[in-house]
From TrEMBL:
The organism's place on the tree of life at top rank: Eukaryota
Name the record gives this protein: Integrator complex subunit 2
InterPro entries cross-referenced by the UniProt entry: INTS2
One GO biological process term: snRNA 3'-end processing
GO cellular component, one term: integrator complex
Length: 231
């Protein structure tokens, strides 16, 4: 509806030459497309939030059944949207959403494999949050689509993490690596040939932590023995 209304507005309100205003129809078209993308991505984010599991869902089996049905309907709709508008899939994933939904979206949306096309760009963002999201997304896609392309992107993730390991300060290193430990395990399961590279990365991480501990700077023991203990 928004798309048709904005198109009608452009036709009803032809461009007038005034200083300080838009100078061409192409600029108006670009702004229209940007506005539509913002509105549609906001709507998709709301739908994704509806897929989140609540404490009530966990305590009441009937609510879990309802949540599964809601997730199926939403994932089916998102699949159609991503197929018809791949740019929206890219926008939604660059905006990000709760990482606990990645198993839901990757398993429930058949078109999620198109994310492999833009993950390198997402991984190159300066934000650690986006980089963590990208690695986690790749790990789930690797399990779902154990394809050569997915393996190539997974290897890129490992190489990127190796580079970041050598340049990040200790506090940011913890912020990056603690959330991705499980992701690395999933990548190893999907692509055993990457096990050696990932093991080397984790050993390098361990050596850095050990050297920092001698200087009085190390990861909190609780953090180390928490989620990533099995790694």
């Amino acid at each position: 509806a928004s798309r048709s209304q904005l198109s009608r507005h452009l036709l009803d309100k032809p461009l007038l030459e005034k200083s300080g205003q838009l100078t061409s129809d192409s600029e108006r078209e670009e702004l229209k497309n940007a506005l539509i993308a913002a509105q549609e991505s906001a709507a998709l984010q709301i739908l994704l939030e509806a897929c989140l599991e609540t404490t009530d869902d966990q305590s009441k089996p009937e609510l879990m059944w309802s949540l599964r049905e809601v997730r199926n309907i939403i994932c089916s709709f998102l699949h159609q949207v991503f197929i018809s508008e791949p740019s929206l899939a890219k926008l939604v994933h660059f905006q990000g959403y709760p990482r606990e939904l990645l198993p839901v979206t990757v398993q429930g949306i058949p078109s999620m494999h198109i994310c492999l096309d833009f993950i390198p760009e997402l991984l190159s963002q300066a934000s650690l949050e986006k980089q963590i999201f990208a690695v986690d997304l790749v790990s789930h896609l690797s399990i779902q689509y154990a394809l050569p392309k997915a393996m190539s992107i997974a290897r890129l993730c490992v190489n990127t993490l190796s580079t970041l390991l050598s340049v990040l300060p200790s506090d940011l290193r913890l912020e990056l690596f603690q959330p991705v430990l499980k992701s690395l395990v999933r990548i190893c399961i999907a692509f055993p040939s990457l096990l050696e590279d990932i093991t080397s990365l984790l050993l390098q991480l361990g050596r850095i932590c050990e050297s920092q501990s001698s200087l009085g700077h190390c990861w909190n023991d609780t953090n180390i023995l928490g989620e990533g203990a099995y790694v």
